[in-house]
Amino acid sequence: MTDTAGAARDPDTVSRFVEHFAAQLVEAGMPRMPARVFAALLASDSGTLTSAELGEQLKISPAAVSGAVRYLAQVHLVSREREPGSRRERYRVRNDQWYEALTNREAIIKRWEDALREGVVSLGPDTPAGGRLTETLAFFEFLEGELETLMDRWRVRRDELFGPG
Questions:
Q1: Counting Cβ atoms within 10 Å, is residue 22 exposed (0-12), middle (13-18) or buried (19+)?
Q2: What are residue 50's DSSP bridge partners?
Q3: Cα(58)–Cα(72) distance, integer angstroms
Q4: How far are the Cα atoms of 19, 62, 70, 140 from residue 67, in angstroms, in the given order?
Q5: What is the pLDDT along the chain (165 residues), one digit of tens a residue?
């Protein structure tokens, strides 16, 4: 197997990593096919593969690749790029995909907080359900503040480890 960056790879070693890491992602709640596609992209030196390359490497259909990429793009783990002069798309995972995915979660957390506030008002703050919603809301508000601080600390650490990006 040759990666799109040209590095020779042992296909069995790559496959074992991809399947092992994908299994960890599945255990954490990611659907199986998107987990396999994401792991394959992470394992490529270039960070990009075409649908045909993913299908061949993972032994899956173009439809399975398409569905997996659609999911990964929605959660901001993969981006699509057109090859210059071609209709063919490449799928890319960047070094900062994890950061981007977490950062985009902030908008989701805000929407959950709004819904929880509405739920507390609707159900009543003094009811058992209202109490659960109040505690859940407090958790998400805490998480949101900590996530921002954590991401700031990560930027500093990343610059220390890998240079300014």
A1: buried
A2: 90
A3: 16
A4: 18, 9, 5, 30
A5: 545 444 567 889 999 999 999 999 999 999 999 999 999 999 999 999 999 999 999 999 999 999 999 999 998 899 999 877 878 889 999 877 777 777 777 788 889 999 999 999 999 999 999 999 999 999 999 998 898 888 889 889 999 998 986
Please tell me the pTM assigned to this model.
0.75
Q: Tell me the CA distances in angstroms from 38 to 20, 31, 46, 163, one per residue in order.
A: 12, 11, 13, 25
- Measured between alpha carbons, how far is 62 from 146 in angstroms, rounded to an integer? 40
| Cβ contact 93:46 at 8 Å | no
And the tokens for 136? Answer: 């859940």
User: And the tokens for 55?
Assistant: 């299908």
Of 48, 125, 123, 31, the residue nearest 90 (C-alpha): 48
